[in-house]
Amino acid sequence: MKLLKTTPKTPMTESSRGLLAAFMAMCMSVMLVACGSTPQDEFANIASDKLYADAKDDAAEGNYELAIKKLEKVEARASGTLLSQQAQIDLAYAYFRTGEKAQALAKLERFIRLHPTSPALDYAFYLQGLVNFNENLGLFGKLSRQDLAERDQQASRDAYESFKQVVERFPQSRYAEDARLRMNHVVNSLAAGEVHVARYYLRRGAYLAAANRAQQAVKEYSQSPAVEEGLFIMAQAYDKLGLVPLRDDTLRVLRQSFPNSEFLSAELAGGTGTAGATNKANKPWWQLW
Fold this sequence. Notes:
This protein has helices spanning 14-36, 48-60, 64-77, 82-97, 101-114, 121-132, 138-143, 154-169, 176-204, 207-220, 226-241, 244-257, 275-281. It is an all-alpha fold.
């Protein structure tokens, strides 16, 4: 067997090694410059107060995306000033209007934590409540006749706590009255949520669970319109469980509290009794009539 002849490699000279090292260093420098370069600031030549005024104009015209870019620059440039604080608040509102709920809440939480004596603190709490108090269910919610009571209630509880801060800590605030009204709406929503769950359990035949959830709504939200249906569901559930004294007591409370209730015309016998419940369930949670 013949062995293939190989041509021996020519050893690299000192000058060649130096040239290669220089070339590699130049490549690294180019790469570092490319990685370290930053895009040019398009607002670099605009003063912070002018940039803030422009952002407000953009927001007024509904161009919140551009307003956000400018406000972010103002917040960074004017750090530690009242202008920066105002930019933070306006940023939270702009995020809210563009549907970026998480960013809006994060901005507000940071503002409240860092500026506990700010004259805008009442508005910060109010806006925090508005972000969580979102009545817009979107197209899917409208098509499915979903209401706020059928959704996750944590956002409603968070909204309630924010509005409560406004009402209790800033009773003279221009936002206090609206916050108080929204608190009432949230309470109605939470009560309706409990009743919605109770109604679901009743339909599934989980009568004890239905009675407990309805009772919780009646006890915790006694001033809510949802109490009417809550009492009716309790009576139905007790009837199914054979707890006749509890059923009769509940019906007596229902008659005394709501003498003109539509639920009183529903038949308990046979366990149907859904005519009045259906009519009530189709109402929006905020409708009182």
